[in-house]
Amino acid sequence: MITIISNVSGNLQGMEGPDIVRTYNDLANSDRGKELNARTVQRFSDRNTAIKRIEALRSSIKAREKGLKMEEGKSKATQATTGLDSFQACEGTNRMRLIKCLLENLNRMVPMDVLLAATYQRSADDMRGAIKAVLNGVRIMIDKHKLDYELKKEGKSYGLYETVT
Predict the structure, then answer these.
(1) 76-162: CATH class
(2) Angle CA 95–100–104, to nearest 5
(3) C or N: which end of the chain has fewer Cβ atoms within 10 Å?
(4) What stretches of the chain show up as alpha helix (H) in DSSP?
């Protein structure tokens, strides 16, 4: 496999379509390719696409060989199930501001006015519907990414609580 990985773009210049596909599939079927969940292909739409995909897979395999790998026994999704990064929300969004406020008050109930002020930089009753939509988005993120949190509601207060696993 090592000879295929080295100097891939140079080797591809003289190859025909089936040889390019075979080269990619050899990389995908290698031990490192299987770790990366690389799938085999039947054909490529054009030569440039083939070269880009082979070089990207080769680069990922080299990175994996250098030690940039996931923790043993854990998938990428389950590595970070706590903390701000686990929510994968974009910086500067209402959802991120709400998550930061909830994490600062972890395992405590937070009044709606505090959540409104943290999310929208003002406390206004007309924003209660909007904040509920953002809270629903947070709940969906917890379920989607199987995070170790639970969003609870008591009256007009919400709280983010860690779950025991």
Answers:
(1) mainly alpha
(2) 150
(3) C
(4) 2-5, 8-12, 17-29, 31-35, 47-65, 76-79, 94-104, 112-120, 128-144
